[in-house]
């Protein structure tokens, strides 16, 4: 009888451990991102801060590992292929970028990120380091499959905050509890206050 009770107890412990580990695997996603070495140290720092912003907002359920690469990639060459996990620096004077914008967007872009693929940032169109953090966070949001929302994921807003709009979408995508597993976070270091979220 004792052996049966011991067996059932061990079985319950194993099932609990298995469920907990499966649960955590769903939550903790690490994306390795390769950063173009032509970004300045200040620009690289802004990109890394953008990744930390998502890590903070998602309570560690998503994080980014950034690795600088010296290999040369042409941003325009990537526009038509599926290379992923590369963050490239483009210049606003790049004729290929201008053509892409003309045909596909109709306006100059600050960044571009098809879901799960490469990210292109155009720092010489971005006025401040804080704005670069916001743009990079927006594009990293696309990389983890988030769509546009009225917050940091709004392409027409300079709102520096990952808000409940982003986190609700994140939890739908990554199977987490919006109320307890996330927290709204701002790239400018200020606390997020819902009344401050104003469409610009």
Structure description:
- This protein is α/β, with parallel strands linked by helices and 200 residues long.
- The protein has a single domain (29-196), classed as Collagenase (Catalytic Domain) (3-Layer(aba) Sandwich).
- The chain is 42% helix and 14% strand.
- The protein contains 6 helices and 7 strands.
- It has helices spanning 2-27, 41-57, 75-78, 95-105, 129-143, 164-174; strands spanning 29-36, 62-69, 86-89, 111-112, 119-121, 161-162, 185-186.
- The strands form 2 sheets. A 5-stranded mixed beta sheet has the order 2-1-3-5-4.
- It is globular and about 45 Å long.
- It starts with a helix and ends in a 14-residue tail after the last strand.
Uncertain runs are 5-26, 193-200
Mean pLDDT: 74
And the CATH topology? Collagenase (Catalytic Domain)
Overall number of domains: 1
Q: Please give the share of residues in helix.
A: 40-55%
Radius of gyration: 20 Å
Quickly give the CATH architecture.
3-Layer(aba) Sandwich
The count of DSSP E runs of length 2 or more, i.e. the number of strands, is: 7
Q: How far apart lie the N and C ends?
A: 70 Å
What pattern of helices and strands is seen along the backbone?
A: HEHEHEHEEHEHE
Instruction: Record the strand order, biggest sheet.
Output: 2-1-3-5-4
Task: Give the biggest sheet.
Answer: 5 strands, mixed
CATH superfamily: Collagenase (Catalytic Domain)
Number of helices: 6
Beta-strand percent range: 5-15%
Secondary-structure-based class equals alpha/beta
* CATH class membership: Alpha Beta
Shape: globular
Key attributes of the depicted protein:
42% helix, Collagenase (Catalytic Domain), 200 residues, alpha/beta, disordered C terminus, two-stranded antiparallel ribbon, 14% strand, 5-stranded mixed β-sheet, 7 strands
């Amino acid at each position: 009888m004792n052996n049966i009770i011991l067996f059932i107890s061990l079985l319950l412990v194993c099932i609990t451990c298995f469920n907990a580990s499966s649960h955590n695997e769903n939550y903790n996603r690490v994306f390795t991102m390769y950063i173009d070495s032509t970004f300045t140290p200040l620009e690289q720092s802004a990109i890394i801060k953008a990744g930390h912003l998502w890590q903070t907002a998602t309570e560690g359920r998503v994080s980014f590992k950034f690795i600088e690469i010296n290999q040369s990639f042409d941003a325009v060459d990537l526009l038509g292929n599926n290379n992923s996990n590369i963050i490239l620096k483009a210049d606003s004077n790049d004729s290929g970028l201008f053509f892409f914008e003309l045909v596909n967007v109709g306006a100059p872009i600050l960044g571009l990120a098809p879901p799960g693929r490469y990210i292109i940032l155009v720092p010489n169109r971005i006025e401040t380091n804080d704005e670069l953090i916001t743009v990079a966070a927006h594009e990293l949001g696309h990389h983890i499959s988030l769509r546009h929302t009225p917050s940091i994921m709004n392409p027409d807003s300079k709102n520096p905050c990952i808000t409940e709009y982003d986190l609700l979408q994140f939890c739908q995508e990554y199977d987490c509890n919006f109320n307890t597993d996330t927290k709204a976070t701002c790239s400018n270091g200020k606390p997020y206050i819902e009344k401050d979220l104003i469409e610009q």
